[in-house]
UniProtKB/TrEMBL annotation:
Region (Disordered): 70-95
Keywords in alphabetical order: DNA-binding, Sigma factor, Transcription, Transcription regulation
GO MF annotation list: DNA binding; sigma factor activity
Membrane-spanning intervals of the chain: none
Example GO biological process: DNA-templated transcription initiation
Pfam families xref list: Sigma70_r2, Sigma70_r4
The organism of origin for this protein: Actinokineospora spheciospongiae
Family designation: Belongs to the sigma-70 factor family. ECF subfamily.
Name assigned to this protein: RNA polymerase sigma-70 factor
Basic and acidic residues composition-biased segments: 70-80
Length: 164
C-alpha cells in the first residue's frame, strides 16, 4: 500500500465529517468537497508529510478553501425559481407581458452600453462573471461591478418608467 493510500484511509472519515459541517450538513456537497480535496492532495503529495506540518491540518484547510469557493460560486449565480404550472393567477395577461417587455427594453436602452452588454452576457447568455469577462475582454471585477451598478440603475428606473 502506498503512502498516499494510507493517508486516504486514515483521514477519509474525519475529512468527510469536517466537510459535512462546512456544507451545513449537505452530504452531496460535502462529498464533492472531499473528492476535490483528494484530487488536490494527489497533485501535491510532496506536502503530505508530517515533517512539513500536520497532514490533517493541510487537508482541512484545502477542504475549507474548496467549500468557500463553491459557496461563493453558488452565491454569485442568481437563484432560479420555478413558477407553478397551471396556476391561472401566475399567468400574466398578454398585454401586461408586452408592456413589461417594452418597459424593460426602454430601461435597458437607457443604460450605458458597457453595462447593457455585461447584463446581456451574464443574464441572457447565462454566463458566469468569469465567462462574461472573457467575452467582453475585461477583468472579472469589472463585470461584477458593472452588473451591480446596472441592476441598481434598473431597480430605480423601472418603477419610474412604469409610473410615466
Amino acid at each position: 500500500m502506498s503512502t498516499f493510500d494510507s493517508i486516504v484511509r486514515s483521514h477519509s472519515a474525519g475529512l468527510l465529517a469536517y466537510a459535512t459541517r462546512l456544507t451545513g450538513g449537505d452530504r452531496h456537497r460535502a462529498e464533492d468537497v472531499v473528492q476535490e480535496t483528494w484530487v488536490r492532495a494527489w497533485r501535491h503529495q510532496d506536502r503530505l508529510t508530517e515533517d512539513r506540518g500536520s497532514v490533517r491540518g493541510w487537508l482541512n484547510r484545502v477542504a475549507h478553501n474548496i467549500a468557500v469557493d463553491q459557496h461563493r460560486a453558488r452565491a454569485s449565480r442568481p437563484t432560479e425559481v420555478e413558477m407553478p404550472e397551471g396556476d391561472p393567477t401566475s399567468t400574466p395577461e398578454p398585454t401586461d407581458a408586452v408592456l413589461d417587455r417594452l418597459v424593460v427594453e426602454d430601461v435597458l436602452e437607457a443604460l450605458p452600453s458597457a453595462h447593457r452588454r455585461t447584463l446581456v452576457e451574464v443574464y441572457f447568455a447565462d454566463r458566469t462573471a468569469a465567462g462574461a469577462a472573457v467575452v467582453l475582454k475585461v477583468p472579472v471585477g469589472t463585470v461584477k461591478s458593472r452588473v451591480h451598478n446596472a441592476l441598481r440603475t434598473l431597480r430605480t428606473s423601472i418603477p419610474a418608467q412604469e409610473a410615466a
